[in-house]
Amino acid sequence: MSTPTPDVLIIGGGVAGLTLALDIADHLSVMLVRPAQDDQGASRWAQGGIAAVLSPDDNLEAHINDTLVAGDGLCDTEAVRFTVANGPSAIQWLIDKGVPFTPETDPDARYPYHLTREGGHNARRIIHADDATGRAVVETLLDKVAQHPRIMQRNDLTIVSLSQDDSGRCRGAYGSDLNQQWHSITARHTVIATGGASGLYQHTTTPTPSSGEGMMMAAELGAQLMNLEFQQFHPTCLFDPEGPAFLISEAVRGEGGHLLNETGQRFMLALDQRAELAPRDIVARAIDTEIQRGTLGHVWLDIRHLGTEAIRHHFPTIQAHCITRGIDITQQAIPVVPAAHYSCGGIATNLQGATSVINLYAIGETACTGLHGANRMASNSLLECLVFARSCAQALLACAQKQDKGLHRDEYRPPAQPAASAISQSALKDIRQRMRQVMSQHVCIVRSNAGLKTAMEQLKALLNSAEGLEGIQAAPEGRRLIQALQLAILTVLAAQQRRESRGLHFTTDWPHQQPKPTASMLSSMHLAPGTMK
């Protein structure tokens, strides 16, 4: 079944996808495939805010330098400068759209909105909407998208692969609707904005995280993947084995929160002069070490000393949620653990979001722009979404002025659909759970050669098991599971190839850094049948 041909097909509806849609829809027709689960995606759950140079007391060079330091030698300097330089205008765009950022109450302040500070930043430059910035931004942009007549939203499709013509250009995508009917969407340009790969891990900061399916769809067409080994683990996720994932924002430490071990002692002071405000990789490893030493399975994040009024003012969402979990953060320290949070690697792109495949773009967490390097600095993620979505929009608009309007259409003939009973949902769930356990055990905060070898063997076995299930390629959930397993294998391969410890990749066998850091580049070629044995 075919659908109308838009100028631009956007797959994914977080901050990056919504921003792009709004920036081009006055001039180009847009189809935004935004499944219902995007409402619970990473963008909405971003609490802390957006980093940008907004105060007269701050400057672009300081933000650039802080980002380069956090990236541990692997940032692309041009990408960092481009992002930081375009940050203020991106924030103004959000303000103009009506995002309700928290105002500054200090009459002597030199910027009208409250700015907080987070780990790795040497200035207050995080603009926020209380402690639910992502939700405020997504809801504001969604409302604008719903009102725009040239944006067609599809909430009923699950995209599982991309299409290309004989010359290798991307020509759209294939997906299945809620009735298991297949659809071919032909588009002049296709943009992947499907999020990262935190869903490869057992413990995450997002209730419904992506598992890198968009990355693998791009790789299947020949796009390069970069720096997959750099998976960021947020230091402070609420510890509650029986409940859903919930992030405790970096801003909690930015406003003065203390990390305590199980004896009630601060442990960051002895490890880094920045203490709790050290970059996330340092803090996450320190917490992991304390957990291994102790018996509780977590550490404590204490903000009681800030006072009830300050806690209620700065962290109303966190306070309200913790109350539902039986924790009064004005009277009790918060039990926290590190959890998979953000993928610094992904589909390699240029400054306009273009991939190595013609007519295919990637923006947001699914892309690897070079901004983050080996470790993302707090609150640079939503900034990247905004800046690169707006840059991609300009490239698409410029391309529309000169592009050949002829579009070759290839009809998609999906594989025959199996009977409903042919695919065991329990088998798919079991394989996915085992994949997450393997990744969390062997490809987590601290790694080793032996652990990575074990992970590779077990993941290949799981992939072989999945591919052996009858009808799996014809079922959307089956295709997505195979893509997740393939990306997990590529992640392990990237980790094995990096013979050093850098940023988020720390291995006990290579504890030191190489003198000349390089990015890791992989593609679907590394998943050739012979490599899966």
From TrEMBL:
Domain of life: Bacteria
Cofactors: FAD
Keywords for this protein: FAD, Flavoprotein, Oxidoreductase, Pyridine nucleotide biosynthesis
Catalytic activity, as annotated: L-aspartate + O2 = iminosuccinate + H2O2
The protein's annotated pathway: Cofactor biosynthesis; NAD(+) biosynthesis; iminoaspartate from L-aspartate (oxidase route): step 1/1
UniProt cross-references to InterPro entries, sorted A to Z: FAD-dep_OxRdtase_2_FAD-bd, FAD/NAD-bd_sf, Fum_R/Succ_DH_flav-like_C_sf, Fum_Rdtase/Succ_DH_flav-like_C, NadB, Succ_DH/fumarate_Rdtase_cat_sf
Name of this protein: L-aspartate oxidase
Protein location: Cytoplasm
Organism: Halomonas casei
